[in-house]
Amino acid sequence: KREVFIWTRLNHQNIHPILGFRSQPSAHLISNWCYHGNLAEYLRCNPQFSRLEKLLQTSRGLAYLHSQSPPICHANIKPENILVNDRCEAALTDFGLSQLFVELGIDGPKGGPDYMAPELFEAGNPKPSPESDVYAFGGLVLAVCHHLNAVCWGNEHFFVR
Questions:
Q1: Domain range for residue 49?
Q2: What is the pLDDT of residues 81-103, one digit of tens each?
């Protein structure tokens, strides 16, 4: 329900839109099909396209999330959560882990560790923030620009070919 609430109130060209929700027999979100797939698939199949353009589009979507009142933290920035739409624009998706900034005191998932900010590994169950999203975006930039894969080992981050 939280994902539906967050996603339905968003309206930006770099946020993948939700079309509907089905709760029975199990919860499913309904959105447009993206023929080009996610960012990792798209860049693998289309190496001639501008990686920087896709990163700029992603940053615009992230800035839009953080500009909401209260700010929205995506909390799981990674190539697999960025879809490439029919206009070949990058659009953030998968808001299942997103948290409204005012809810950051609530325990909850933090996303996959590969792009996670180091402070989120600390004891005391620290919460995702716009700053931790920016850290994850920095890892995304490194991975996309240098054709690397992010790998997390404990609380150490590595990027490998």
A1: 2-160
A2: 999 999 999 999 886 555 544 34
Q: In the chain, how many domains are there?
A: 1
Q: How many CA atoms lie within 13 A of 147 on its CB side?
A: 8
CATH number for position 47: 1.10.510.10
Whole-structure pTM value: 0.80
